[in-house]
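Entry 14: structure prediction run for Adhesion G-protein coupled receptor G4. Input pasted below.
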Amino acid sequence: QIFSKSWNKFAHQNSCYYVEKSGRTWKEASKSCQAFPVKSSLLQSIQYLEDYSLFKVLLHMLTPFLQGSSWWINLYQDKDSLKWLNFPEETVTFIDWEAHTNFKMNQSGGVLMLGSPGENSIRWSLRDLSSEEGFICEMQDCSDTRPTFVYIEDRTTSPTAEETGIISKLNLHCVPSGWFLSGSISWFKDGFLIEDPLYEISMNRLSLSLKTTKNLMDILRFQGYYRCSIDREYPFKQVFSPKVLFKIPGLHTFVLHMKSEASEVSNCSHSISLKLPYADALNKHLLEILPKGSVAILRDASCTDSKLHYYDHIYFSEELGGENEIKKVIENSFTFGNDVLLELLKQLQVDKKDISIRSTVKCPREKFYHNRRILNWPETPIGQSALPEEICVTVEGDALERKCLGDFDVGAYWSPVKKDCDVVHSDLTVNLQKLARTNITADNILNSSLNMEILTTTWKDLRSMDVQYVAQILRNMESVPDIKPQVLRAVVNTVDSVITAKISASDRRIALTNASCRISAAMENIATSVQTDGQVIKEAGNNIAVCIMPYSSNVTLIPTGGVLENWGSNVTTLFNDSDRDPYSHFETFEAAVLLPDNLLAQKQNSSVSNIPIIIRRNINFLKNIDVISPVIDVSVGNEPVYDVDPPIELIFKVPEIPVKQKEEFFQCVFWDQSLNDNYGGWSFKGCYNSYVDSTHMRCFCNHLTSFAVILELKPGSEILKVHQTSLSIITYIGCSLSIFGLGAIIVTFIAFRKWRKDVKHKVLFNLSLALISFLLIFLIGIEKTESRYGCMAVAVLLHYFMLSSFTWMLVEAFMQYLSLVKVIGTYIPRLIQKAMLFAWGVPFTIVGIVLCINYDLYSSRHKYCWLSDNIFYLAVAAPVLSMLALNFVIFALILYSNTCGRSTKYLRTNQNERQETIARAKAVFCVSILLGLSWIFGFLAVDEAKLIFQYLFAITTTSQGFLIFVFFVFRQKSTRDLWLNLVRTAPSPEISHITGGTEVTSRGLNHRSVQSRLSRVTYKAKLSYISFNG
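Run finished. Output tokens:
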């Protein structure tokens, strides 16, 4: 689904189609297809028989066939000329005309139409260009790598004055994004599939009109959480939307939470079933003691931490009083309960202290004693955070926050307070906290805004708690109607200072994320309430520009957007009498927003008076740190805006990157406050992007909110920040240890002439040289993206030494095969020269080919100095996987040779079987390290198992060099003796030629003695290469 249009295709096809039934002329239909933000045109791929036959099957599935149905296609007839407009030079070779087609028109357009009466077939025909027909749009490339997901748009409304007897009109729309199986949308309420015939379900829409009833139980069953789901085809998975709450208006809903000890935690359901009769009896008794008209229902029961939890829902009509008043009535019923109530609580094994009455809307005002301090927390809606009325700053520098947790099922409750209050040293913090506690009204809003401006602009060092108090002040201001322009100016200067402030990296980002969202929302609400007196109001700072365009349905001059040319300048407003193209006004600009003409037409009957456009730099504490464009906030009225068609167009200035890579790396997104437990996050649902040029990105979105462009290689593939930090620490520690170990190997090779005579030590030296070069360049240069050519040099060297490391691992695998498997006849003349030619030459050839094809492939410096994804799979993944596959084959041969494949007939050993098994297991483990088999974890780090394999990859791969040093150098007694003798200044001992088994076993062997000595030599060679007993 793209901008409320359902596109369809077969799973194996690249092309997809949109079928429109409403009538348009041929030119209108063609323009409508081309107006999509994606590349589409009228249907044209039916020019070949195979494609045409397949499309007819799809069309039969999508549309109900009524006599006379017809749709425009991209076929055009001009007198005697007939052509497909996308391929005008090609002759139309395949046709499927309807029998009564009129070919005598001067100009006409092609249509697909239902055949003659009684037929259920599709034929071609021609229609006059002014005829109004349906039409079919086609996109040639429908590949979408973004994950499939689904969400619900809640369009529930209150009944109009004419709709008497109606309480509420439930209206939910299931909005899929990405490819999914047609017809797979399902609806659920409280986790159960909806099959009630009272619901009206049509395609992706669920609706219900609730009527007034005397029995409250008749409608309570419709109150609760709704979800929808779709089926993803490959790999198959049912994808669920976030849940949406529907509450019946005019009702107070409370949760009676009771908990007791569970007798058997291992059998929770059995414990609950024993108590359910008493819970039902309790609900019946509550109806007797609570005011008339109330209803009590057991909502849920569960076991947690050896406790049984009961959640009763108690409903009251709002006519009986306010929420706090009714809550007091319920609490008194339990405080002064009668004997029957006390007996039922006893049967449930519930103590009065374990009973709480919770609102389903907000956490109550609470006086909290914390570390010998009294903190008063205000009423706070579920999902939001609050600051105490008293000043309390943590040791990290944050204002102490507390979140209202819970939901409609379990009620609202406060999160625990886990931090202590520290001494406040800043007068700025004290003054901002006092201002945040001030009750801001129309009389004092100007003075309050000016005081806030003075405080934030005169102090240089804003800390995170100061930003939180600024957010609270703005939140208090947004409820004031008819705000003067002077207040807006003070607010803009304040937010400009906040964006400029360099918040300490040690401060808590989650608190700042929350504050930034409140600042953004408050700015929009304040701008909407500004008195414009029919004039455009503009304010700007170095990091923010605000434009408020007045709107009235009585005027002909209608605002259509705005453009910010440079930071520090005002937004240039666009109206319906001016050119909408920003490039006609400016050569370059920071950001632009273009509103479709019909958007304001939809709002003519609403109370929209102002259209605010806010363009700001990314506030540095927004949760997604990869925002690389300005942020645009735009709203029209206070109600949500859905299905904007044609969509809103936004253009952002972004860092320069090759156009061919822009769509792969950049994503248009909007801020969705419902994500991450209401802390908010960036989402790309309802937004699509296309490039403009090397420095600008165009976004199309079908709703209004905060928009930006983020850098995202693969949407949905991010890992949590804590894991990113852990993986980075593991990587740096592992690489440092490996550099030390590899350096020790190289020094040993250089220092001892006799040690470097061995062929295996020469191979080990070259492998160490390749690995240490790769690791050093990785640690020093991978993030040095400032210089284009310097970054390219790093990428080239990384590519070369990475491939060299794998070629030398393959050489090591070959050496191990000769030493541990073949054993006899293993002498190869000039082995080391041939190995060097292969191991250093093959990577050089691959890197050279990439450089000759396009050296810009090494300039993918969006975040790291590395190859672009365009060539990565061919130049890195393919050769690395090939060499790993060969290493695994050789490893399997070695494993077989050391276990099932060895002969014991002539074997003589003083080791028992257990010791022998342990020694062989150690040998196999060490060979796996030498062959770099752990690199396979990097290719397995996908989908659900990604995080696990990333940790395995980081731990095993980065420490490979250190482990090679430990097992192949340090644990070798002969090598240790060399270093000991060097330290003692004594002559170095001869190195045992047993470690040179590859060549020794190939000489001096008599053909007649081979059979009798083979097993002894083989076993000796296998165990002597890796020594574990020194």
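Notes: The mean pLDDT is 79. Will compare against the previous run tomorrow.
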